[in-house]
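DUF983 domain-containing protein
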Amino acid sequence: MQNLGTSLRVLLRGFLRRCPNCGDPGPYRWWWKMRLRCRQCGLHFEREEGYWTGAMAINLIVTELVFAAIMVATVIITWPDVPMLPLLLVGLAVNAVVAVTFYPIARTIWIAIDLLLHPLEDDEVRETAELRRIRDQTTANV
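Structure:
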């Protein structure tokens, strides 16, 4: 089990779209296109089949919390004459924007949570060490 400081650091890296394992800022080629492995530590981001289900759940939860907050705030502010049609249209637009833009962040958050719950196994540690060794040899020869 990791200590609280380490756990918070891993989660913060996920929230900042960094590799939760090493902190490298490059898990993504661009906003939505994720690399297969971390450029720095070699961590394979998709650790098993169906891995991104957790990221989808995080994305859905955040999207719906934002939607609910907007709905509740608008109803409270405009009560008793709630503008239902504009409220629903804004809510739908917000749902679409938040769901699409937050998904890459949800993916790195999910990797962080998964690393905290299921630390790297021995074979994964050996594999990432070997990839780092090969990378270092390749860059030293250039």
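The chain has a mean pLDDT of 91.
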